[in-house]
Every structure is written in structure tokens, then in C-alpha cells.
Design goal:
Layout lengths: L5 E5 L16 H13 L3 E3 L28 H6 L21 H21 L4 H12 L4 H13 L10 H4 L3 H10 L1 H27 L3 E6 L8 H5 L14 E5 L9 E6 L3 H6 L3 H13 L2 E4 L7 E6 L9 E4 L2 H12 L4 E3 L7 H9 L4 E4 L21 E4 L8 H7 L2 H11 L6 H10 L5 E5 H4 L29 H13 L6
Parallel strand pairs: 1-2, 1-12, 2-3, 3-6, 6-9, 10-11, 11-12
Antiparallel strand pairs: 4-5, 4-7, 7-8
Helix pairs in contact: 1-18, 5-8, 11-12
């Protein structure tokens, strides 16, 4: 896919400001769309929007299909009479600069329960009819996910492989019986999904009217503790106990002498292929309905992946295994035409991965923060960029631009300033300017860089099991002055796009 010369900002919805402890899909999200439109940015990039599990990570979701109910806006529920003013009277005092997930989840669940109770008490059947339509349109995953979450509630959050054997193995009679017992709890989770998809759909429609398109993020792997694995065990390498037989990760490299274990169960690709990739087609259909473009996380894994024994303590005892990415993308192209995809092709990329990316016309990623420690032919240096790429200052996995500048070795910092011909007094914007001036068709920077924030505002430290995904933008940071500054750099480098 090729697109017009344009720009965008990376900001996860949880990082939006607001009074409810976490960014959501309410008024502040609409204000954010207005800001993007006013600044001349054509794209908003988000992280995965699924219900978060381990470590509050959007990349460890309870479902590859469901939405995160904690993004539902209480203000919009209030405007639709699904909440009363009294329901919001005892609002906890949440920190403004970070997400306290434990406190937010506890309060949001209470609020969503109140909205559900008001809904079932209303004589008007319009809303219930809309929910019934939503159910029919999402039969392939919705009921199973709602049952999965209801059972997790009953088991106090324990992963599905620890449940009673008949539940763990989805015995048909047991599932039918338990679905009747927990019917009310299942309907509550379905209601939450309806609210999420309605609010997200409305926000997406508003963005398109404002000439802002949204880039979603599709992780290649799914979490072991997810409805996807529980419902479809035949698609994954699992033991009889439900534990993964083979897991994902990456081999040893300069940064990690024993490699990295990610822990996601690996796909039985031959089963997916014999099945006509139906699960993948369903997944892409839902994602393409929600977003205008998709970033495919760990793109190289669609060509070959690092296979690690499920009981391994380190990743060095693994091997490379081929994946049928070409067959998958060919099938997806038959279903959807030229799919709008950005290939996350970072790290050591082999010729077969590059060939697959070029075959389907997917633009790759170039990270400017990676550019200043290699040789003149380093692909991350802007003078080596192709036009069909997405140029980033950094991503959610990197330090902020200023944080990098303050912590990087002196030699690398010095070369960076020489390359950009700058003195470092306004480093974040110097890096943005260098990124925007590149030939890459799309240029993106995290919002933290536009705000010139340091390491304390970093979104994620890969490998750290806790303390991530918490950063929030302050309400006063989106102002006319910043909007005009971004608009000016878009004008200078011809990135108005739309």
C-alpha cells in the first residue's frame, strides 16, 4: 500500500486526560481528534485496544477480538441516561499523571454494572434491540468471550488452565450448564462490549469527518490466558494440561545473551492453513472495521519465528521455524483487496522477510533513534529511507526523544547533533524536524516528543513486568500554541496528507 505524504501522532487512548483515572473514548478523545485535525496531522496511531490482562499490557489481552471496557466513557453514558449524576458523586481521587489500574478497574466495573442495571430496567426496547443486533453481528466470538470473562470472575482471575477439568477442556454439557448458571454475568460482559464498540465506532466516524484516520495495532501472537486459546485449543501448541507446549520469543542477541521469552503459545500454522485461515480472516475483518490502517507487530514472525520449549527458562534453547506468511497474506488479499498494513520490521530482518514485505507492498518502519550508532549505510538514517516507509522518532517501546538524549553515550549524542546540525537545546523538536523532513511518506512521533518530555514519561520498558503503560497527558498540554507549531512543521515539509 502506498499513501500520500502525511504525518501522525502516536498516543494510546489510556493516555488521554480526564477525571476518571484513565483516558477514555469520551469528550477528551473528541477534543484530541480536533487537535490532530487542527494541527494538520492525518493519522492517529494507537496501541491494541483489547481488554488488558497480565501487567496491564495491551499486548497481553484476554481476547484478540474484544474491546477494553475500561476505555468506555462515563460521561457519554451519563449523556445517554445510562448513568445518573449520583452514580458519579463518589468519584475516587485518581492521580492525573498516571493510570492506577487497580483503582480504575475496581471503580469502572462498579460504574459499568450500574449502567447495565439501568439498561435492563428501562422500558424502552431501542437499546436492547441495538444490543441484539450487535450480538448477531459478532456471534463468532462474543458469547465465548463473555463466558470466558464470567468464569474468570468466578475463579477470581485465575487463568483458564487452572479451572476444573471439564471447564478447562470445554466439555459440551458442562459449558451448556454453566452458561445457564452464569447467564446474567455473561450478559453484563456482552453489554460492556456493546458499549465499547458503539463508543469507538462513533469516535472513529467523527475522526473520518475531520480527515483524521486511525492506525490500529495487531499483535502477531495472542495471550495464553485468553478466550482465543481457551475456545480454539486446536490452533495452538498446547499440552493436555492446557499449558503451552511451545512458546514465542527471540533468540540471544547483543542486548540479551540468553534471548527473550515472551510466553505466548505458538500457532499450529498447518491447522490454520487447512482451515483456510478462517480465524485470521475474522480477526482482520474486525480490525479493518475499526481502523483505517494496521501496524502488524513482529512482522518477521509471519515468515519465520523463534520456537522455544514451553518449560524453558531461557530463550537460547530454541530454533527458527518457517511460517506461511505468504499464503496468509495472499488469502487476506483475496478477501479484502490490498490490505492497509504497516510492517513492524525492526531488528535483524532476513531476506525472506524483506521479500514478503515488498511482495505485498507493505511499508516498513524506520526508527530515527536507532540511526546514530551504525555506519553511513545504516537503514535507519534518513538519507537511506525509501519513500514507501513510515518514519518514527521512536515508538512506545523506546525512550522518549529527550530521555534518549539525556541518557545515551556521549559519542552517539555528539554524532546525532552533527548529523542534524543542531546544538541540542530543543532536541525533541530537532528530532521531529529531521523525521518530518525525510522522504518517508508517513512520519509519526509519540506525543511525549511533541511535549518535550523526558524518561519519566516513557510508555513501556520491554522486559519490565510492571510499571508500564501508565503515562497520561495533562489536560493543559493540548493548546492552540502547540497545535500551530505542529501545523507549521507539517506545512514546511508538505505533510498535510488529506
Amino acid at each position: 500500500m502506498k499513501f500520500k505524504r502525511s504525518s501522525g501522532i502516536l498516543l494510546h487512548p489510556t493516555s488521554l486526560p480526564g477525571p476518571f483515572g484513565i483516558g477514555d473514548l469520551g469528550p477528551q478523545a473528541y477534543r484530541w481528534i480536533d487537535f490532530l485535525s487542527g494541527s494538520g496531522c492525518s493519522w492517529w496511531q494507537v496501541l491494541p485496544l483489547g481488554p488488558t490482562g497480565y501487567g496491564d499490557s495491551p499486548y497481553q489481552s484476554f481476547s484478540a477480538f474484544a474491546g477494553n471496557p475500561y476505555l468506555i466513557s462515563p460521561q457519554l453514558l451519563l449523556s445517554e441516561n445510562l448513568l445518573s449524576e449520583e452514580d458519579l458523586d463518589d468519584l475516587p481521587k485518581f492521580p492525573a499523571e498516571r493510570v492506577d489500574y487497580e483503582a480504575v478497574i475496581r471503580w469502572k466495573n462498579w460504574v459499568l454494572d450500574r449502567a447495565y442495571e439501568r439498561t435492563i430496567q428501562q422500558p424502552d426496547s431501542t437499546l436492547r434491540h441495538s444490543i441484539d443486533v450487535f450480538k448477531r453481528e459478532n456471534t463468532s466470538w462474543l458469547e465465548d468471550f463473555a463466558l470466558f470473562m464470567a468464569l474468570k470472575d468466578v475463579h477470581l482471575g485465575l487463568p483458564w488452565h487452572t479451572w476444573e477439568t471439564r471447564l478447562r477442556d470445554r466439555d459440551h454439557d458442562e459449558i451448556n450448564q454453566i452458561s445457564q448458571i452464569y447467564h446474567e454475568a455473561i450478559q453484563r460482559h456482552i453489554f460492556n462490549q456493546y458499549l465499547f464498540f458503539k463508543q469507538w465506532g462513533d469516535l472513529h466516524s467523527y475522526a473520518l469527518k475531520k480527515n483524521v484516520r486511525i492506525i490500529g495495532d495487531l499483535p502477531i501472537f495472542v495471550s495464553h490466558d485468553s478466550a482465543d486459546v481457551w475456545v480454539n485449543p486446536e490452533f495452538f501448541y498446547l499440552k493436555k494440561s492446557g499449558m503451552p507446549k511451545l512458546i514465542s520469543g527471540v533468540p540471544p542477541d547483543y542486548f540479551s545473551p540468553t534471548g527473550q521469552i515472551w510466553g505466548n503459545p505458538l500457532y499450529r500454522w498447518k491447522v490454520h492453513q487447512r482451515n483456510g485461515f478462517k480465524w485470521w480472516i475474522s480477526r482482520f475483518k474486525l480490525e479493518l472495521d475499526q481502523f483505517d490502517m494496521l501496524r502488524l507487530d513482529h512482522f518477521r514472525g509471519f515468515s519465520g519465528y523463534w520456537e522455544i520449549p514451553g518449560d524453558a527458562e531461557t530463550a537460547d534453547n530454541g530454533r527458527w521455524v518457517k511460517a506461511p506468511g505468504n499464503a496468509l497474506f495472499k488469502k487476506l488479499k483475496q478477501e479484502f483487496g490490498d490490505i492497509p498494513v504497516i510492517a513492524e520490521d525492526l531488528g535483524v530482518i532476513t531476506p525472506d522477510v524483506e521479500e514478503m514485505r515488498k511482495k505485498f507492498g507493505f511499508p516498513g518502519m524506520k526508527i530515527l533513534l536507532f540511526a546514530f550508532s551504525g555506519d553511513p549505510q545504516d537503514p535507519y538514517r534518513p538519507h537511506n529511507y525509501p519513500r514507501n516507509c513510515v518514519a518514527y522518532t521512536g515508538t512506545h517501546d523506546n525512550d522518549t526523544a529527550l530521555g534518549w538524549y539525556q541518557r545515551v553515550p556521549d559519542e552517539e549524542r555528539k554524532f546525532c547533533l552533527q548529523y542534524m546540525n543542531r546544538d541540542g537545546s530543543d532536541f525533541s523538536w530537532d528530532l521531529i524536524r529531521t523525521c518530518w523532513s525525510s522522504v518517508g511518506n508517513l512520519a509519526i512521533a509519540p506525543m511525549q516528543d511533541f511535549l518535550n518530555l523526558d524518561n519519566q514519561s516513557r510508555m513501556n520498558y520491554p522486559g519490565n513486568p510492571s510499571g508500564n503503560w501508565q503515562w497520561r497527558m495533562q489536560d493543559t498540554t493540548i493548546d492552540r500554541k502547540l497545535e500551530e507549531r505542529i501545523r507549521e512543521i507539517n506545512r514546511l515539509y508538505d505533510r498535510f496528507g488529506s
